[in-house]
Amino acid sequence: MTCPSCGEASPPEARFCPVCGYSLLQRPDERRLVTVLMADIVGFTALSETTDPETVKNLVDRCFQALVGDLSVFGGHLDKIVGDQIVAQFGAPIAHEDDAERAVRTALQMRESLNVVAAETGHQFSLRIGINTGEVLVGAMRAGGDATVMGDVVNTASRLQTSAAPGEVLVGAATHAATQFAVEYEAVGALDMKGREESVAAWRAIAATAPPGRQRRARRAPLIGRDEEMGVLRHATELTIRRGRAQFVLILGDAGVGKSRVATELASELKRDRAARIVRAQCAPYGESNVWAPIASAVRDACGFDYDEPVSEQRAALHELLGTLPGIAHDAAEIDRVTDGILYMTDNIKRAGVDPGRARDDAIRSVATFFEGL
After folding, report:
1. 222 or 4: whose pLDDT is higher?
2. Alpha-carbon span 41 to 62, nearest angstrom
């Protein structure tokens, strides 16, 4: 057996190449729902005519290092780099429940990253990006090589990328439908594309309008087939109420099987039957560097803060809320301390003259005081 990656001979029973470690197992072709991203760097062709090849190569390496880094942060898979073009996919080999949204967020971040590199190097170049979502065939070519995606979705993504102006991100209809609740778009209209009989509807991505991980509101059909899971959660809830001790429940499952739905159903029952106060916290699956983000999300939800609300309005609303909580001393100094701590936790807003370690400790105590008073 010859390794398709490095070309070295391997024993017939080997599962991996003993030289490069490449998997020698024959993977069957598989149909997957995938979002394909194609990005082309505009400006390198003209630059190559007047610039030394070594300089061009170093510039290309620097650009691709930044772009592939963005791709990794959002959980995408680099399919190939062809010249000055990147081909990537979201949904294969690893699927997420928000692959289309991840792809669009990646494209927007790629655009910003390349602008930074262009400004630092003093060269003029930008990105044209096309994104499309649909069913593809994932498999390896018999001639050898890594698995790739094949189908009309890939061709349409390529045509969208070609139709985009420098600096634009164009998406197809399926990608737009899956991400319009989290991304601002401008309708481009139907585009006539080379090699296609029918025109393709396209939208221009402007900016993300919701934080990563925010779930989409949808109509609720009756919950069916989760009696066992709901029974376990109800039992844990009863133990919490009777014994006055918190229970930690971890729900595991593949993307799209209904983990969030089960948790939401339990919360709705507790709110309806026991008048419970529900506080929701979200952990962003990508792009989040603040380790306190889940706690900050819970505080925001409890306070009813909007992410776009000015800090001054947040401070005023929080100050008023703290004045009504029975577990907090109703003096101005204490309320100011708790307010500053919570704002540090939620927005990383520091007080002048306070070191980060002390600010963090104050924030933890303030959040604990806040939830005790709820």
Report:
1. 222
2. 12
The answer to whether the beta carbons of residues 32 and 47 sit under 8 Å apart is no
Query: How many other β-carbons are positioned within 10 Å of the β-carbon of residue 38?
Result: 26
Q: Please state, in angstroms and rounded to a whole number, the distance separating the CA atoms of residues 366 and 338.
A: 5
Q: Evaluate whether 327 touches 371 at the Cβ level (below 8 Å).
A: no
Report pLDDT for 47. Answer: 77
State the chain's mean pLDDT as an integer: 81
Are the C-beta atoms of 302 and 317 separated by less than 8 Å? no
pLDDT digits (tens, 9 = 90+) for 190-210: 988 777 778 889 999 999 887
The Cα 276–Cα 77 span in angstroms is 42
Tens digit of pLDDT for each residue in 242-282? Answer: 988 888 899 988 777 888 889 889 998 998 998 888 888 87
Q: What are phi and psi of 268, to 5 degrees?
A: -65, -40
> Which residue bears the tokens 């072709």?
29
Using alpha carbons only, give the angle 139, 21, 94 rounded to the nearest 5 degrees.
40
Cα(40)–Cα(162) distance, rounded to whole angstroms? 8
Degrees to nearest 5, angle at CA 254 with 73 and 221: 115
Model confidence, pTM = 0.69
Beta strand 126-139 pairing with 148-150: antiparallel
- Compute the distance between CA of residue 299 and CA of residue 290 in angstroms, rounded to an integer: 14
Nearest alpha carbon to residue 57 among 44, 39, 75, 68 = 44
